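3.2 Worked example (two chains)
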Amino acid sequence: MAKKSDPNNKLIAENRRARFDYAIEDTLEAGIQLLGTEVKSLRSGRANIAESYAHTEKGELWLINATIPEYPPAGQFNHEPRRRRKLLVRGRELKRLMGAVEREGRTLAPLKLYFNDRGIAKVQIALAKGKKAHDKRAATKDREWKRQQSRLMKDRG
C-alpha cells in the first residue's frame, strides 16, 4: 500500500465513515474498470465513495453507488455518474473475499480511491465487520480520552 508521504499517489476520494461504522479486518488494492471520461473526471479530483460498497456477483466484484461526476467537456459522450464499475482482483483473492462475505457475514467497504505511482486508478477495499452501537460509543470514548491525555501531557511538559 502507498505511503502517505509518497507524492506520486494522488488521493481522489476517501471513505472516512467506513472506519467508524466497520471494524476493518483486512485490506486489499483493486483495479477499477473505467471509461475515458471517468478517468478525466477523476484527474480533476472529483469523486465520492462515501455511500458505496463492493458486491460479488457471478464470480465478479463490482463497486456500487460510487459517484464519479460527468466530465463537462465530453458533452454527449459522457458516462453515467452512478453506474456500477467492475473491480479487478486476482481470482484467488476474489474467492477468499466471496467466502468471507458469504460464510462469515463480512462487508466489502471501499476506503480510498486514488492514482498509484504509475497513474492507474486503484481502490482500497476493506474486508470489514459491522460495529454495533455500543462499539461505536466505546471507540468515541477512547478517542476522546486519548485527546484529553495529550492535552494534559502538553500542559504539564
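3.2.1 Second chain
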Amino acid sequence: MGASARGIFIDLGGTFRIVTANQAYSDDAKRRVAELAGTELPAAAFHDLIEERYKDYRDWALRNMCEAPEAALWTRWLAFDLDPARLERHAGELTYYYRRCKGERVVVPGGVETVKELRARGYTLGIISDLIGCTEIDEWLDKDGLRPYFATVQQSSVTMLRKPHPAIYYQALREAGVRPEEAAFVGDNLKRDIIGAKETGFGLTIAVDYPDAPALVFNAANMPDGRITRFDDLLKIFPGAPAAVIGPEFKILSGG
C-alpha cells in the first residue's frame, strides 16, 4: 500500500528500547532506592512493597491517562508511610533508580542505525513515550548522541499526559511541524500506541511485534496498517520522505 508519511513518531519501551537482565545493576538500584527513601526495611523487601503499591498507581494513571509528578508518586502511592519531606527532596533520584530496578535499558538491535538512516532519508522523527521520571530519557539521549535526530521528545512524566490521550500526540505533531495525516506512529502497545495514534488522525500506524514479546491480539479497533518484527524493517517501509510502502510482508492477515 502506497502512502504519504513525512514524520515518523516512535514509542520507547518495548519498541525502541528494551530491558536486559543485569542482577548487579538491579540490586544496586534497589539499594539506592531504599537509602534515598529512608526505609528501615531491607532493600529487596522495600522493593517488593513498592512494586505492589505501584499497581494501584498504574491503575490510576491508565484510568486517567495522566502521569503524576514524581513527588506525588512517592508521597501518595509508593512510600506514603515515610517522611514526605525526604521523599519530595529525593523524588527525582528515587524514580530514576526505581526504573533501574527492573534491569538495564538498551536500544534494540539496529535501532540507532535505523533512526539515523530514516533521518537521512528526509523524515522528521519524534518520540512519544509513557514513563515515570523526568531525567532518564534526557540523560540517555545525550549519552548516546541521539538528541539531534528527534524533532520532538514527548514524555508523559513531563507533560503529565499519557497515551492514548490525543493531547500528547498533538503536542508532538505541533512541535515537529507535522500534520496528523502526514504522520506515522510505531509502537508495541495496541491499546495505547495504535489506538491513540488512530484517534489523533495519524495517517499510518505500525505495530511492533518482536518474536520474544507477548503475542499481539488484533481487533477492528486496534488494527494497525502494518506490523514489523524487527526495528530495522522500518527502512523497507519508509524508502524516503514523503513515501511509505506497506508491502505484503508487513500486512496483517485477517484474524492474525
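3.3 Remarks
The radius of gyration is 19 Å.
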